[in-house]
Amino acid sequence: MVGIAILSVAGKNHWLGQLMSDLGVRIMGSTTGIITVMVFVGLPFYINAARTGFQSVSPRLEKVARSLGASMWSTFVRITFPLAWRSMLAGFIMCCARAISEFGAIVVVAYHPMTAPVLIYERFEGYGLQYSQPVAVWLVVVCLTLFLVLRMVALPARKKP
Amino acid sequence: MIEINDLAVCLGEFRLREITLSIEEGAFFALMGPTGSGKTVLLEAIAGLVPIQSGSIRLKQRDITRLPPEKRGVGIMYQDYALFPHLTVAGNITFGLRYGAHDGHKAEKRFATLVDALGIGHVLQRYPETLSGGELQRAALARALIVEPRVVLLDEPLSALDPNFREDIRAMLGEIHHSLGVTFVMVTHDFAEALSLASRAAVMHDGMIRQVGTVKEIFRKPTSSFVADFVGMKNVFAATFEPSMARIGPLALQVPDRPANGAGYVAIRPEDIALCLPAAEVKNGNCVPGVVTGIVDQGFFYEIRVSSDNQPFCTVVTKSAAFDLSLAVGMAVHLSFPPQAVHVF
């Protein structure tokens, strides 16, 4: 569905697609297309996690910082961001993990150059299970690493004295 | 001097209305009221942390109504202390020194003085999550005071502390106020706190100020049944008046002076009512016969509920007095109190 939606908007019959082709941006069958799809499916994960992170910063902390003389910008830099960056990073990792495993939309928008799931699919279809397994192992390793990093980020870095 | 004139704040469903208040330079002012009456919102309005709908706030003759919080010189300390969790205690305290014109050398001296006065030297390198309530509170106070605010707003500074620890911190607050001469505005719903620390106070209810005056005045002479109830008068009755007499149903009470026109209530503090056996001789002016309907253990004393002609009275007795009188529910007793104890409003 995501793939069809992107194709509809980026196609020649849509003014946006027209504009992009005039600018020399090609979505179909290109890295740009893959990135577009990945951002499209992954972004909600990032936004959700980042939003939760910002919401968890008590407004009182920001109010106290303001009352101590910090401007809005310094309050963000010294209070809000240091307390929320962990959630932002966690969201980024989840976003990556979600994007890396996307198959359906990428197959529709940009079969070539192949992403790992597409490569697995092609090898499985063309040569059988054995040939698709190495790619799958690589994908699993990358995803596991991502989640390991996520776990480390989610845990508080500071140890209690 | 803080002058608030006809202030209105609208926060969704909640409104502050017609807030007019003036607080003298260097005073310790208490804002009292039940939960949800708008005390914290009023503090935040003074600090510039909530949008103001109308009215004005002046601080030392300067209009600060539209000034951003960082330009007001008003410090605030919240009930939960709101220490920055990612900074050490020292980092928290010195947070505000980067802003405004703080002389580095003087600031260092003040830091040392405050840390010493508040006794938090041993926790400077620790993070807030590892601190006890009292330490958090003192750190938050130091953080607010180090930037030399003109006014310090305290939002229920003592309510999150252990009761036996509260007295120490209360005394410390009083000392700090005394030695610095900064204006303190404290929100509290504890009357004992207000009595021991503040000189003047205001009682709030439903986003409005109901009474302003010295704490003693509010305590002894509430001007409305709400305030009377809030300050623990407990015995508040609707009454009709005759010269030097008040009638509560069939009961007639002597009152100290001729009530003002429009007065409709009498109130008596529970601790002003003496409880005795019917046989005892009554020395005080008013004597009301009644029946004990309830005995409530309040820790250090008993609260005795007495019904007289279906009017519920409330008085307090020490535990030993209750034992001497062998008080029990259903017992006939007399309540006596002098005319001066009857407050008419």
In short:
Chain A is mostly helical.
Report on this model:
Chain A is 78% helix and 0% strand. In chain A, helix 3 packs across helix 5 (72-100), helix 5 (72-100) packs antiparallel against helix 8 and helix 7 (116-127) packs antiparallel against helix 8. Chain A has helices at 2-10, 15-23, 31-55, 59-67, 72-100, 104-109, 116-127, 129-154. The mean pLDDT of chain A is 87. Chain A is built from eight helices and no strands. Chain A has 161 residues and is mainly α. Chain A is flat, with a radius of gyration of 21 Å. The longest helix of chain B is centred in the middle third of the chain and has 18 residues, at 163-180. In chain B, helix 3 (104-118) runs antiparallel to helix 4 (133-145). Chain B is built from nine helices and 21 strands. By secondary structure, chain B is α+β, with helices and mostly antiparallel strands. In chain B, the strands form five sheets. A six-stranded mixed β-sheet of chain B has the order 6-7-8-3-9-10, with helices on both faces. In chain B, strands 16-20-17-18-19 form a five-stranded antiparallel β-sheet. The model of chain B has no long low-confidence stretch (mean pLDDT 85). Chain B has helices spanning 39-47, 89-93, 104-118, 133-145, 163-180, 191-197, 215-220, 225-230, 319-324; strands at 2-11, 14-23, 28-32, 54-59, 62-63, 74-77, 151-155, 183-188, 200-205, 208-214, 235-238, 240-242, 245-248, 251-254, 265-268, 274-276, 286-297, 301-308, 311-318, 332-337, 343-344. Chain B is 25% helix and 34% strand. Chain B starts with a strand and ends with a strand. The A-B interface holds A 58, 60-61, 63-71, 74, 78-79, 82-83, 158, 160-161 and B 44, 47-49, 68-70, 72, 74-78, 80, 82, 84-86, 95-96, 98-100, 126-127, 129-130, 143-144, 147, 149.
